Amino acid sequence: MHKWSPLFIFGLLFSLILLLACNGVDSTDMSVSTDTDAQVLESTELRVMGTTPIVTDWINQVASSRLTAESVMPYDIDPHSFQPGAQDVARVTESDLGFWKFGRDMRVNG
């Protein structure tokens, strides 16, 4: 049985990777339209949810006019007695990005 040297195997793998990396790509496939990209970015509005009103206020202050966040918890309720309902769960599930705060850590889910 023939034993392959590690240097030969490395050279073979390197050549294969180089060959695949240098594969030509048709320039028509790589066309980029900056106008449509800008329109998509302007028309796409993220749905952002914060767990509490204070977290939502932080998001709105930092993001200013770029996005608007909604709070899962109403502003006029005690946070310690709040129980989310099915509509609250649906709103969080449908959102693009979620922020929550536990203890000293701020978390992002998205």
Structure description:
- By secondary structure, the protein is α/β, with parallel strands linked by helices.
- The protein has a domain of 67 residues: Rossmann fold (3-Layer(aba) Sandwich), CATH 3.40.50.
- 42% of the residues lie in helices and 15% in strands.
- The chain has a four-stranded mixed β-sheet, with helices on one face.
- Helix 3 links the parallel strand 1 and strand 2.
- The longest helix has 16 residues.
- The chain is elongated and about 75 Å long.
- It starts with 5 loop residues before the first helix and ends with a strand.
- The model has no long low-confidence stretch (mean pLDDT 77).
Give the SSE layout.
Blueprint: H1 6-21, H2 34-43, E1 48-50, H3 53-63, E2 69-71, H4 86-94, E3 97-102, E4 105-109
Parallel strand pairs: 1-2, 1-3
Antiparallel strand pairs: 3-4
Salient structural properties:
single chain; 110 residues; alpha/beta; Rossmann fold; four-stranded mixed β-sheet; 4 strands
> Termini, distance in Å?
54 Å
Number of helices: 4
Question: Low-confidence stretches at least 5 residues in length (pLDDT < 50)?
Answer: none
CATH architecture of the domain at 43-109: 3-Layer(aba) Sandwich
Shape: elongated
Task: Give the helix level as a range of percent.
Answer: 40-55%
Binned strand content: 15-25%
Quantity of strands, as a count: 4
Look at the structure and name the CATH superfamily of the domain at 43-109: Nitrogenase molybdenum iron protein domain
- Spatially, the strands of the biggest sheet line up as 2-1-3-4
Gyration radius from CA atoms, angstroms = 25 Å
Q: What is the CATH domain class of the domain at 43-109?
A: Alpha Beta
Mean pLDDT: 77
Class computed from helices, strands and strand pairing: alpha/beta
CATH topology of the domain at 43-109: Rossmann fold
Helix and strand string, N-terminal first? HHEHEHEE
The profile of the biggest β sheet is: 4 strands, mixed
